[in-house]
Amino acid sequence: MIRLRTPDEGVCVVDDLVRGEVRFEYAQLGDHVIVRSDSVPTYNFANPIDDADMRITHVIRGEDLLSSTPRQVLVYQGLGAPVPSFAHLPLLFGPDRKRLSKRHGATSVEELREAGYLAEAVVNFLALLGWHFDSERELFTREELIGLFSLERVNPAPAVFDAKKLEWMNGVYLRALPTFDLAERLIAYLGERGSPLASQPDRVVEVTPLAQEKIATLAEFEPLCSFLFGPIEIDREAWERVAGHERAGEILAAVQAALAACDWTVDAIEETLRAVCDELGLKPRVVFGLIRVAVTGTSISPGLFESVHLLGRDEALARLGAAAARL
Question: Nearest 5°: phi and psi at 242?
Fold first, then answer.
């Protein structure tokens, strides 16, 4: 085992670009091990040698490594190598103010990609963890971040990884995409995950405008819009909430008859279904709620009139008929 001789007295001063001047008493450091008894060099010895060999000028890392910095500075000095500038960034905490870990959900880039987050939204979100430009602005392009970012604006306090804020930010980016661009990303995302929806790319393009204002991640597209791609399975709980209405059969019959005769445009479908509500003397939420579950299988879906239009007259009427038969 080999140790590095540390001065008995004095102070190692580290001018950290985030934390300012940090002082370490040599008397508190001791003679630290640089080569273990198995002849393997330690991190605090090998790392400075590697940095010196590569002529590293800045070391940017987490604050959990701050305590190892004076030991590494001694190695740089022992080698006669320039000491790089250090910047120790704040650690990431979860909303519970505990160190970020798996229990807080997706925490790696791969997991965020799998969850349907856009790269540009993730970059924007991560840049704001411990850094800010001003107290108002939160949305930045990558080019803007490159131009504006500085270590001097990094807050040394721990940053909170707020998953809800990331989801909100991703939704903002997603809705700002040109619709065809979003459709292409959805097709690629669905294909990478083996979704059957990926086999109908033209249909994804058709449905994307309907979903764009409703989803916050790419992963939300399939559960929200799968009813537009093939047969549906009626959600039992959703069905029981609407099918128990005493006039459910009358409602479905009136809707079928009205849709069978109307022009097949979104505006005409909306006008027709609202007219059914007036004729039956029922509130739209009652009539529309029953129609929604009948044609989509669930109580949560994109716009009702647009959904019925995209299904097509024959499929919409067939689903309404199947729902009537369930009563």
Answer: -105, -25
